[in-house]
Design a protein that fits this description.
2 helices, three-stranded antiparallel beta sheet, alpha+beta
Length: about 120
């Protein structure tokens, strides 16, 4: 969930930056002097460096294996693996790409498997 939250924040920041770039008026030209140019270069370099270090890395996680819930009961579920094999899970079980199973809950007439990295329906 933390990874998805970070991704959402990154998307919001990117969208905000894009909107600000399109709506910000161009600064008025300022007469330059040698002293002013050196200060401007220092500020620009600092601003550029800060923007690069504050931004989250643009890494894309590998896609998680696709599991589907075939059956469930309180604290137990049968999933179908990407290879089509049945997999029995319970809280504490580890799933490749999904991490540990944290809970199994009922949602309507179906079951949902909650893991460290998302939910499987």
């Amino acid at each position: 969930m933390g990874g998805r939250l970070d991704e959402l924040r990154h998307r919001e920041d990117t969208l905000e930056a894009t909107q600000n770039a399109h709506t910000a008026p161009a600064p008025a030209p300022v007469p330059s002097s040698p002293a002013r140019n050196s200060v401007r270069k220092t500020v620009d370099a600092t601003t550029t460096h800060r923007a690069q270090t504050d931004a989250p890395p643009a890494e894309h996680a590998a896609p998680r294996p696709h599991y589907t819930v075939q059956a469930g009961a309180p604290d137990i579920a049968i999933l179908e693996s990407p290879q089509g094999q049945p997999v029995r899970v319970q809280p504490g079980s580890m799933l490749d790409g999904w991490g540990a199973v944290t809970a199994i809950t009922q949602s309507g007439s179906g079951w949902v498997v909650h893991t460290e990295h998302g939910t499987i329906r």
